[in-house]
């Protein structure tokens, strides 16, 4: 029944090519893993010279597990993120601007910022620039217009994505957050709002997915 | 089994009180009715001296049915609305400003405008003021700030409601429209966005419900 | 890439204008913030003479953080709200009536009542007036008809909004609550019910958003 | 593989028992069937002496197909229903009251009324008794209180079910209709509202399912 | 603005009429109430001679609060229900059969059973009669066919409601439960399934609403 | 930027292997294609000796396009399916039983039956075996127990899948249909019901996807 | 009213037939049961010689309850599963391959693997074969092609099911997991993705339902 | 009430700056507009020398309206798009690769391709590269790896986005299409799948929004 078939060399090579080309760190998504599983992965990293890795969605217990094996790893508790090695690579490519509509969106924005930074981009974070006070976002026009890629983290109405995209020529990576009252439905409201942004130049990642937003922005702003 | 019970006079009186007090026209929602049913209602109106009435959601066939009985009725085909008698009442109360984010939102905005006008308010309509070009809405700040109530009709991201509410002190009645691509889900996206407006002072009516928005705004701007 | 652009003075002025005009307190939404962040905001307020502020969605820990810095702040634990300064402004404008369909809707109704009061309106609260016993709401007709704006807080079927709107000429601000059995889906049932109110004169705010409802009602009942 | 097994006689008997016991007509749901399929069923009926049958959800083409074979069948075009034989059985059991909140709910209410009548119950229909004008439903209290089962057909907010259940001791069978603006979502709003009725004594059938409501009400009001 | 209006005597009388006629106990929905609120209600009951009352959705803390004031109240912990006075009324009317598809549906079924019993009906409960083993439900045909009203509590596919309704002539009150794996979505799957029951004679109450199901069944089986 | 990379021979070979191994026909999903596109595909087939192909979801215009190029193709209009070459392969493997709960489910069931037959399985179709009359499905136990795979096509409550799975040891492939009243929500109700089948041995394909169901069943019943 | 009817012997026999034929263990779904209920079931098993049983969705407390009565039962804590008797039956039938897209999908995959093994199939589990690195799944082609049935457990995009089905001729049983960020909506995303698999040969079980997937796969791979 | 306020010059300037900087064409979304409105816009364009404009979602009637005024405009009927002036600008920036999973996704993919081309990017389109046959997409690795931005248009399971993102370092703009059977729910299935892509480097635009995808990709691949 089973026919003989060996994976062609090109496949193994495929992945190697990709890692080498990108120079991007691997990511370990901790949320669905036990502390023991996370610790085992961290222990493996200690043995390898060149393995840049981000641990995302790490709760305090996950963090302890990583730090047991990699005591010098960077730990950004507010973003639920650990990075190994702790020093980010030298910056290259264009500026990534990260905007948090409100203070409650900060953890997601920080995850995006750190991810982009550990992929090698220069980053700048601006907080509390929601559209309820337009002057706040308009005050940051110089930042917005100097960026090659912009991450907008916003919950509730998610309106900041449309407003920002209307002001700049750089692509906007919108990340809806689960911040808000009942009918925000855990981020569904800003997700739909951002998908329906009335200004072109907006694309959307998953709810609360700061890692994905930062990664996408870093790819956009890479030198090619 | 059934106990004897006569409706107390106060009930019949109840409704009479209300109509007299409001001086607001009745509304006939045509969408679920046959042309014959609509025509019969129009015929009854002809007999009554004082019955101000709006026919909403009237398709061309509904309109013909009304105009057969009430040839002088006002017919605003773009808003799917007919009014009897054709002359609106004299204006009283504060200004109602009606904003349509884009041209596609115009039918709903017009329904709101005409409703508010037939309830007696002075009205002004501004079109194509979506947030993708902030200068467009900011150019209408004088209008917005002179209004006692503001209707915002917007589809897609519905972001205009938040932006406007952040600029004025008058209450904003937001009406989501079913305009937009797939994930607008027939108006669900702007509905949720408006319910989650990050600026206070926004309340929401049903999708495409220009009549409800205009009615609410007229009540808000009434002299009391 | 980034063009030179300075935020025009009119923007900074914009916000100042708005605050001055409204005389409305700022609101700090505590739900997504750490106690430390909330405390820092409270500490800033202590330094400012004129900053009226409401802390909404404050859990006991948030409350402790505020009271550490502002020991005299009003704390309404049932509504999850703190107010600074503790004295509400003198009343002006029309009466805001707040209705809670059942006892379980009381926290949301109280948040609405206090918000409207701290925005300067006279308020009156009526509880346990659900439509399962019509006489209860009909017994409050005098209250309802003396109000310039009415807040209706109801979960389950949300039917109270329609019934009240059919009895009065004042605008009704409906706030669905997350009270109820399974298919209430966390407030979705009364939200949809209120958006589809068969009587005109109803507009809706977010689920459990007593603050938003009270704010909207206070704006409607303001003297203009 | 297949073990020998003969359906025991008790099964065939099962169905016969049931039909005999109920004396209720069969129902043919036309919506998913071709005209030819419907016509073939009608032709079969012509051959059988005792087969009382309702054709539900019959569009004009379905109706023509039935009437070709059974020219004397009753055809209630407004309810999309045909009945064979055309005469309903003599009435027995208690009164079924059927309420339509508005004119647009009439087709569903009529389907319920006719179904209950063809199952043998005395019926009475009341239209335009929505809660936006409470006096209208209160004017029919005598009808409501003389009924053994009450069908409430309502779209939009579906609030009539709660109000009626609060006024009577008979069970209420609520049938949501797909009447309404956008966020009625094809009847979802009244469906959820009725499932969350704040008065006990309400149970719900499918959206627009007048047949199901009338059937259930007839069963409730049967003499047992 | 507010016209003088006194609640007509008929309203107060309305409620009294209703309570007297029904002889049904009041219900206190504990889920949204604090223990103090529940205890206060219990204390009031102690003062009244004739107030039959059910406390539903009572968690252990709610139960303690009730029992502090009414130590002799019946407490059915498995159903989250307390009854005062503890003795149910003498039975009258027809039999109410309550079916639980599986053991996990038992709490809801028990709530239904006790409610119907405290409204005065004779009741019988059958457990573990899910359709995965048809012989289990067919073994209870004698019970099903002797009942005047049948409550079916089922989660997952909710298929039991259709199967039972196809076997009997009594009305079936279906109560979906929140039992099941992921795509049961908290009871949505059986709710929709039951609303779409392919056999007529099924009406549905809210998810996990054993109280509502038992109440409806008791009304159906009442002597009239 | 782009590195040189040639698709390794193993890939092209991959697909060839697969087609050869399966001996299953290709399928052309017509629904999203123009008649011209479908005709062009049919024309290509004419040139190839060995290309067994099914055209699924073919409306009358699609069918005409195919038959223009392949006049001898089998056309099953009721199932929206065309097959080329017209003769199915000789049967092999176990029996596939296909059940349609009602007449309205027949098009989907027929699509499943024909697909399984054109993949080489012996098939038998049973119609009108819904659970509202249990004797109907129990009368087909011999068929069910002789099958190696069973397809159950049902709309509304989808309960037939659970009932059948409880009676047999063969795997059940359940295909929900979009048949039913409003709250069937285009097949969502039976989809969820089937995913939550209380009997093990049920797996589900997409709504109305008779092709997918027949294909899966044919794979299950294949000789291996 | 109730007609005399005795359950025919064939029914009792029905179930016995089925158990005997299948030789499959019973399953006790622990999630909705108390520890006491689970313990009582375990105690009953101790008395019976031949009762193979799986306890699924057993949390640590459930497990303790089972092990108190059946100390030798197998307990796979990672899969929330206990088996009695502890030794699986001798293997028969074809190979069941179980794939977990990522480490977080492992508990569900393990539940599937153990279920299939306790139904008598030989099993092999492959982890971390998600499509983000195609070489990982392509490296397992020999496993995939030697299997008679394949279980694919995947969260997030659920894309692995389509990719695998495109590579093999065996049927794929897809089980979506609740792993992932916000818009995975508790497994809804992979559920819909798998139902829409672009390759034929995929059928889907409930979210996180490893037991159902393993059972279905074991039935497919059984010798018949 | 309304304070004097003039829009500051900087706003008007804002928009001018933006248009000048981007050199991107304006877009007219035809779907919600009448033919007369579209024609009026086209007529205005005729008067302006430099106004590059795309008309998107143009049905045949919209197209006729545009061509009446601008007979030389490019009309791509398959993409529902017209462009004025007809010649795209000279290419600049990196390559945009556009992938259509199947033929049915072609209209959306073409809209993306043409949009990117009219924004000035070189483009290449590859069709029929769905993951059901991995060799098809792997055969296009050279194209994928030479692109600066990749648009993936796919319906059904949307799995192509994850697979492509795992093979390249360029950002992937995913556009779900409304192609597919019932539980695709008009594009919801691929939308959720793409938002949950298991490979980083994917961001998503609205369902069927080829224009938005092409615009975003063109911005990403621009020279900066």
Please give a structural write-up.
The structure is a homooctamer of 224-residue chains. With 224 residues, chain A is α/β, with parallel strands linked by helices. The first copy, chain A, has two domains: 18-84; 96-220, Rossmann fold (3-Layer(aba) Sandwich). Helix content of chain A is 38%, strand content 17%. A five-stranded parallel beta sheet of chain A has the order 6-5-7-8-9. A four-stranded mixed beta sheet of chain A has the order 1-2-4-3, with helices on both faces. In chain A, helix 8 (188-195) links the parallel strand 8 and strand 9 (202-204). In chain A, helix 4 crosses helix 9. Chain A starts with 8 loop residues before the first helix and ends with a helix. The F-G interface holds F 14, 18, 21-22, 24, 27, 94, 148, 166-167, 169-171, 173, 191, 195-196, 200-207, 211-213, 215-216, 219-220, 222, 224 and G 14, 18, 21-22, 24, 27, 94, 148, 166-167, 169-171, 173, 191, 195-196, 200-207, 211-213, 215-216, 219-220, 222, 224.
Which properties best describe this structure?
homooctamer, 224 residues, alpha/beta, Rossmann fold, 2 domains, 5-stranded parallel beta sheet, 4-stranded mixed beta sheet, 9 helices, 9 strands, disordered N terminus
